[in-house]
Write the structure tokens for this entry.
Amino acid sequence: MSTIKEKTLRELQTKVHDLEDFIAKNGIGSSYLSRAEKIQRNLNIGLFVGSVALVGGIIAYQILKSEDEE
């Protein structure tokens, strides 16, 4: 069973997390933070797609090169 101390600690952690989320969404610089998060997300997606395209191109090149040698 959970003790009162553990329950209180979990409740305080939840309250602090909620407060941090509120400040991040409504505090000073929150618009810059949301823009930075969007830019980071788009950059990560671009890097992933570019990496997949690069690996696909290398594989296609190797397959075509091996077929030409035969």
